[in-house]
Write a structure and sequence with these properties.
- 4 copies of one chain form a homotetramer.
- Chain A is α+β, with helices and mostly antiparallel strands.
- In chain A, 25% of the residues lie in helices and 21% in strands.
- Chain A is built from 7 helices and 18 strands.
- Chain A has a 5-stranded antiparallel beta sheet with strand order 1-2-3-7-4, covered by helices on one side. In chain A, strands 9-8-10-16-11 form a 5-stranded antiparallel beta sheet. In chain A, strands 5-6 form a two-stranded antiparallel ribbon.
- In chain A, strand 14 and strand 15 form a beta hairpin.
- The radius of gyration of chain A is 21 Å and the shape is globular.
- The interface between A and B is large, with 114 and 114 residues.
């Protein structure tokens, strides 16, 4: 059934369809007293915004967020969270007036068209309706609030692989990530992808991608046995993003190919602070569902969008055979725009776990 | 914090430590009138039971389940669920009286020893306490109940890979799965693994594994936008199992390396029933978080157990450098015993989604 | 902490402050295919709207609701729910530009001013902020949707008592309820209250009230053991309404004064349908947390609003002694405007229980 | 549907039927490091235990609780909570082997017999099965743990009224409460009740009662807007107890009969600590759903048990007219044994709110 709320204590609920009047989120459980204005959210939305290069969909949305509740300007002139629900809204602007009759009548394979109809018997088919990636804008907005809840944590995501072409870890340069349209930390790979993605775009084809995300500064102890494990929550968060088909924590599937010796994460006494030092981080910063104090790392697989120019066999709502192809604007590689969304979900999971930890353990 | 309940409508809550007097689960939300005795649960526990071959830990637990509530023998002499909570309990028997002082004082790297202490400042260190894989017995018990809630679904899991050695899909034979100690569907691979795992066992080493799971008979429409997506719930369920580091739905990370054309799942009119026919199932039976009617498939990566004979650097509770190694009984490949657990979690997720779907959509 | 969501399967989340730009609710879990336009919601809001007589606050809000998501116009031209979250919004219009400096500095006794500050250290003090009864408009809107989920149920609330002056059960006439500004079913009482409430208004005083609510058509079987009992959910729902201090189911506190014989609800075979006939309904239609098939009845006590003209001792934010009194528009009897809110909460509880029952029991 | 978990962060789940092998509770979310043995729980159970006077049911249950998980003996020799789920179990002993065929075939009016059948089509009829007040033993056990989570709070409940005969507030003496079989703080009333209840017992009749509960030491700030309000949670908690038909916070229904002036709770600067002083406590220590720092008070109405000697009209499972009466052991006034249960639910609500507050607000 419909379950549009994420989180247990720090929670957000999203609403809205791709071509409705607006989309929004209600963030509940946020601690009070946090300085928050629209300027704290907008930059993260701008990073995700479509239409910024030829490598993402040409739909142009200003994605201007408004805060409708949950903040108040105190006597110091600073607008702060009051501890009550924060309502965020973005008006939809560029709902191009187009003819959706083909989408209304025939199911786009790989999209949620058929399954929404199978479930609900009825759907808003304009632009994918509720299943549109447009919903992820509100995740990014909620994530911007979440970041302020856990300011000690820094989160960084990037594209590690497009269409099977991987970055070279030896060439990893965090400074590069914002310098190219692919959130790519390897300048050489970024150059190769330029052609790769452009070719796909021109051919009306699409490419998959792998996004990696690292959260630094997560204190040892956040997380939870057993069904709110930090890795379990991250897996749910990432797998709930449109087009995601796989999630790994730490070495992920590679760990399944290692021996116990090769996969060991030896510990050493801390040279300074409390947390021990680790010689490796195969575990991705999580053991038994709880943070070790090392960087929390995950990898997320995005499939190539199913919107392609090549006609694909499908059926109509009435069950008749037909074919469908996608013309016009689309994302040749949806994984690229997934980067800010992955970061946002990481932030939301960590904010929630931070508050859950504080509830039970007091710190 | 502590969150030992899984599920939204069909829910189970587990309790118990490896070396406490017992472990248990409370299954809540189960529909009434389902015939259920201990004999419906025991066979699934027997499949998971340790000590059945030299390839799994030699701890010997009868794992005899008792149903303490939630069932009643009606006038037809059949014991059935009453719709009230089903309490399941297994007494711990083989808590070998051993000296845990080394585990009490030093953290086993890769285990949850350090993180539980970091979180709670205090832990039951005997046999891993609450973080022991022993807890998974109760998942299997809950899963046995869940299967009865969705009898139209058949679930099959098997080991697809140990230590990097994969089965040959061409040699897949479901009949083989129960014929070898590895739940391996490829007789040749099973033979190779015999030596592979035995060598690891003798060397006090350990191996990772990949488990695949297929659920057939899941009707199109089960599942949910957006934060209780079927794939999102499966990812959380699988990632909550001890030693799991990665989850894939359908083609998973491979999909990230395909083009949109290669990844397409064309649809054709059904030759008979309602659901359309699909030419491929890259999506693993899920689109937009909702079942397509095809087999629901996932892959789960188990790391090699961190309990190995080779001494590994670690620290004591007081932060002093030391080394630790694991002697005595252990699992050379924990992934093997993960097979019944993966099946159980699949069953629990599907039972929950079936009831959630019925709540909103009436069928 | 902040928990702005009500319900388990049919859920709504409200947001917004009295003097913010807008208030809203997100209704999630609503079944698909239900015909729903703003015209289905507006009449219920109009019933609750302030400023309709001199007996309620003179704040004038058009309370025009907009549906921002979750509905779609099908091929039959009817707008229907799609099963996705329904976002409802009302713009605040009449936030009279007034000087709130006294409220900002001193706590109004009986209001949530002090407690919000004690909890959050910070609050939107304009018009009560989040604790304003204005929030109840969104409950009425959510309740309007809930009514459509359980169309077999008819819900009727009315004021049974103001300032200790009760209606005469012998003079109960449902047709009267909409004919006077008090939702009073007893024409004589309504006449008495006219003077009673007007006197209080002129004196800047306030009066408490008791609201009764009856839901007919609730099928036997809805409800739940043990912590989502129908009566338990109703109690929570009603007690969450501003100014409510007591809730009774059926005979309530009177039952505590009866003998078992006098309180008995004998059953007789049904003359026609399935459910038995009952000779009395002391239980208010609920036994063991589950509906009996009789009318579900509850009584709700509203305190007199604490906003009165008489100065009351209080303290400033700095802990200094002062006095405060309320000038200007206010409700002399907040219980009157509670009637549509009580009905709405009854509808929401029943819709939730209907879906929960269907989840577990299939009907 | 079945929802056997209470609480949001500090949660407990109960299981078990009156005549099954055992009853139990799983307490989850409890902070770690709290000293806890069975001796901390048993005294509270002993207070509730049936068969202690002729004024309560003669069923004799030792109600010996066992802790099966969630605690561990540390190096200081003290057994403490580990932060993992605490499993509590009580074996049923005195399930008198009696003939239940009359209860199996005919519905006892006022009990949950008919409604469970209407809901589930099937029930464990022995001794009320799941709907038996026996379940409340586990609430008392969970409450004993909850008390340790909020040691700053002291909770006191007592019977204020039986069969309409009230205590005299002027004669209130807390020291009396444990000195008579009625938990009565007024020695004179206790004497009167002796005859009152004994007469009812001999006549096979039953009496209702009102229980009052006061929690002192609840800090200002605990509680929550809007749907986890402290009063709303208390109302749900109390109304979920067997036989409860009404809940009041503070002055409750009496407040509905007061003017705003009479109901005012003026505040004065604190003479010492942080919280202000209040001249009255009509509000029962809660404003806007949040604690004011004053004593939190509530009143709970228990109906007379429906188990009486007088035959009452009812129907059989097949819908035929019949009569039923209750012979043998029963409670002439179930409200008496409700006292420890009311205290326990108060403790559980406060423990939950304390942790929720800490989650959001850090203290």
């Amino acid at each position: 059934m419909s379950w549009n709320t994420f989180g247990r204590v720090f929670r957000f609920t999203t609403w809205g369809e791709s071509h409705g009047p607006a989309i929004g989120a209600v963030v509940d459980g946020c601690p009070p007293g946090i300085a928050l204005t629209e300027d704290d959210i907008q930059p993260w939305l701008d990073r995700r915004k479509p239409g910024q290069s030829k490598f993402t969909t040409q739909r142009r949305e200003p994605d201007q967020v408004r805060i409708l509740s949950g903040v108040f300007e105190g006597q110091d002139g600073k607008q702060r969270t009051t501890g009550t629900p924060i309502s965020l809204m973005i008006k939809n602007v560029d709902q191009r007036s187009k003819d959706y009759s083909n989408v209304a009548q025939a199911y786009r394979p790989g999209h949620a068209d058929y399954t929404y109809d199978a479930k609900y018997g009825f759907r808003d088919f304009r632009g994918g309706g509720r299943s549109s990636a447009r919903e992820t804008a509100m995740r990014v907005a909620a994530g911007a609030v979440a970041r302020l809840v856990v300011p000690q944590v820094s989160i960084l995501a990037y594209v590690a692989e497009i269409g099977g072409d991987r970055i070279d870890p030896a060439k990893f340069d965090a400074g590069q990530i914002g310098q190219n349209p692919f959130w790519c930390p390897d300048a050489d790979a970024a150059q190769r992808w330029e052609k790769l993605v452009d070719d796909a775009r021109k051919a009306g084809s699409s490419l998959g991608a792998v996004v990696e995300c690292v959260a630094r500064g997560v204190p040892a102890g956040w997380g939870a046995p057993l069904y709110a494990k930090l890795d379990s929550e991250l897996a749910a968060a990432m797998m709930s993003i449109n087009a995601v088909k796989g999630v790994e924590i730490g070495d992920g599937f590679d760990a399944a190919r290692l021996s116990g010796e090769a996969n060991a994460d030896p510990m050493r006494p801390s040279s300074g602070g409390d947390a021990p030092e680790f010689a490796a981080n195969h575990a991705g910063g999580i053991a038994g569902g709880i943070a070790t104090g090392q960087p929390v790392t995950c990898r997320v697989a995005f499939k190539p969008t199913s919107s392609i120019l090549t006609p694909v066999d499908t059926i109509t709502r009435d069950g008749q055979a037909t074919q469908i192809s996608t013309r016009g604007r689309h994302d040749p590689c949806v994984g690229i725009r997934g980067v800010p969304v992955v970061e946002a979900m990481m932030a939301c999971v960590l904010a929630d776990q931070a508050l859950l930890h504080r509830a039970q353990c007091g710190t």
